[in-house]
Amino acid sequence: MKARIILVALLSGLWATAVLADRAAEREIFRQGWQAAESGDQPGIVQAISALPDYPLTPYLQFELFRQRIDKVPAEVMTEFLARYRDWSFRPQLERSWLRSLGEREDFDRLLAHADDSKDTRVRCHVAAARIRRGQTEGLEPVVRELWLVGRSQPDACNEAFSWWRRQGNPDAGTAWRRFRLALDAGEAGLASYLKRYIPADERQWADRWLAMAQRPHVTLRQARQWRDLDYARLIVEWGLKRLARSDWKAADEFWRVLVRHFDWPDGERAEIERDIALFRAVALDAGAVAAIDALPDAAMDQQMLAWRARAAMAQGQWAEVLASIEAMSLREQADSRWRYWRGRALAELQRPEAMVAFTSLSTEAHYHGFLAASHLGQPLSLCEETLQADDAVQRRLLRDAEFERVLELFHVGLPWHARSTWRHLSRRLIEREIEQAALIAAGQGWHHLSIIALNQTGRRQAYPWRFPMAAKGTVLAEARRYGVDPALAYGLMRAESAMQPDARSPAGALGLLQLMPGTAQAVARRQGLRYEGSESLIDPEINVPLGIAHLGELYRDFDGNWVRVAAAYNAGANAVERWLDERPETPPDVWIETMPYFETRDYVPKVLAFATIYEWQLERQPQLLAGQIIPGSGPAAGFACPP
Question: Distances from the Cα of 216 to the Cαs of 172, 239, 249, in angstroms?
Fold first, then answer.
């Protein structure tokens, strides 16, 4: 079966390779032109454009040339270019740059003619300024108010519009207070301090107290007992208590016990404060959390609170309360695999025979909780493979599609962001069979990320060889041997971190297949004598994979060969994991995972373990990572099977 799968992928790749092979020389010229664009060499861009009159990606070079000459491109040329390529991935960026340029040059006629639908803040502010200059201010005040009413500083392009808006008598007290709070909610205390000037003079003492609450909550909450019982006082205290509860529920609870008697709290406000303190008491897995939650009014018992009641109870071994929490959830929540597993787990701990039924119903599903249920029963893990067949006619039709050709070309010349953007647009007009065949072509071309996202779009989630590809296989296996890392876990991490996207970038700054932070990569490179050439080098698999697997090897040694802890540390950091272990040293592994306070890590570790299990199947070996790490005393699971 595996040989046939490989053959299907190879044949799919051969069709595309045969069609696209004659593009090699053009790609090289394009890459040279793109490098010229990156260095600001405009004559080099022009030279490449001249050499590529019929190449599908030549408009991308024209886009770069126009972007770099944004102030010099005739308006009629720009509008015609934007209209011609209105569905291309570069259009939003080019249009935004052009509209900003029109505003900066005060070319208001063209700006007003073309910027009506822009969502860009700078462009909208330029449009507002243009309308002010033209005297077209009817209905403008609410537009500018919306631009002003955000929790961050706005660009200088907005200054003229904001000055005009203030001359109209804005902001009123309510609007000023709203932005002040937005700034504090966003952690922008400096902006909030600036905004204090727009708050009425007789109310600024409350703004000062709110700023103090944001910067020194413990001191300010102690002082709050001296405040008069006014709406502002209760609002600031409520904000401070809720904020403090996230990091120190005990302190928040102590302050609340005093302040609840000092102010005449409406029932709704009292309930919200007590709910937040109880919630974060449960997140901290305090022994009294279940009782604190049960003391809340019924209206506070939402799905989030019930989930944390269950986790707090399981951390204390209160399995009857775990079961009660689950049975109080909505039917939709109870049907989720997570709570089906924990219902079975609670029933098993309570030695109730229904546990067998609960685990059996879950054990045929191919995911983390299904695999765990099968392991509890001592059964093989359920994995039913779906094989995809190449359809030559559909693939040939796709390869003649100009937009799909552009998708592949963008990938091959090293512009994956543009390739993915173009694919999103293209896939909206493709039928499911065409998307499936596009996935096979992409896999054959070595573009695993597109294969994964395309098959996810079609719901072909059991097409495991394509959805869980062995990317950079030689490098992964060699480095895993070198650093004592299980290759299935390395692949599971890679699949969870980046979905096999070499240029993946996280909001936090992690890069590449194994999503390494530059600081971590640099430190690992120094300790292990590995190559590292700056943050951008991390999008190169030949640099990223050795560094990432070396980092895994270090974590493996630090956490005594426990892959569950290694995966958690890879996501949350070693310090967080060590803290959780110190707080709960004897906790069963599945409970330890489920009660992690970081929601991202709580979902991440099961995903990694499930993906690693599928890679164990790909590597044609017995599954041992998940069951052996989670169920104490358990060895490898009883193989894989596809239930009839």
Answer: 28, 13, 16
Span between the terminal Cα atoms of the chain, in Å: 18
Which residues, other chains included, contact 19 with Cβ-Cβ below 8 Å and sequence gap of 6+?
399
Q: HEC string of 270-302?
A: HHHHHHHHHHHHHHCCCCCHHHHHHCCCHHHCC
Q: Pick the closest to residue 495 from 538, 452, 537 (CA basis).
A: 452
Residue 70 DSSP label: T
The angle formed by the CA atoms of residues 384, 388 and 393, to the nearest 5 degrees, is: 165
Alpha-carbon Rg for the chain in angstroms? 29
DSSP string, 576-636: HHHHHHHH-TT--HHHHHHT-S-HHHHHHHHHHHHHHHHHHHHTT----HHHHHHSTT--S
Distance CA 325, CA 310 (A): 5
Long-range contacts of 552-556 (CB under 8 A, 24+ apart): 552/483, 552/485, 552/489, 552/490, 552/493, 553/482, 553/483, 553/484, 553/485, 554/524, 554/527, 556/483, 556/484, 556/485
- Residue 79 vs residues 61, 89, 146, 464: alpha-carbon distances, Å: 17, 16, 29, 46
pTM of the model: 0.91
What six digits make up the tokens of 340?
Answer: 């089906």
Tell me if 31 sits within 8 A of 52, measured CB to CB. no
C-alpha distances in angstroms, 410 versus 20, 416, 583?
Answer: 12, 6, 50
Residue 17 has pLDDT above 60, yes or no: no
Angle at 137 between CA 134 and CA 143, to 5 degrees: 125
Residue 432: C-alpha distances to residues 9, 444, 459, 460 (Å): 18, 19, 9, 10
- DSSP class of residue 562 equals -
Tokens 């040279």 correspond to what residue? 32
CB 620 within 8 A of CB 575: no
DSSP secondary structure letter of residue 638: S
574 half-sphere exposure, CB direction, 13 A CA radius: 11
Q: Could you tell me where the beta strands, DSSP code E, fall in 273-399?
A: 381-382
How do residues 179-237 score in pLDDT, each as one tens digit?
999 999 999 999 999 999 999 999 999 999 999 999 999 999 999 999 999 999 999 99
Contact between 304 and 293 under an 8 Å Cβ cutoff? The reply is no
311/86 Cα distance (integer angstroms) = 51
CA–CA separation, 238 and 438 (whole Å): 54
Q: Which DSSP helix (H) or strand (E) runs through 640?
A: strand 640-641
Q: Which of 284, 286, 306 is nearest to 296 (CA)?
A: 306
- Among residues 145, 147, 194, the alpha carbon closest in space to that of 174 is found at 145
Render pLDDT for 267-296 as a digit per residue (tens, 0 to 9).
999 999 999 999 999 999 999 999 999 999
In angstroms, the CA 452 to CA 513 distance is 14
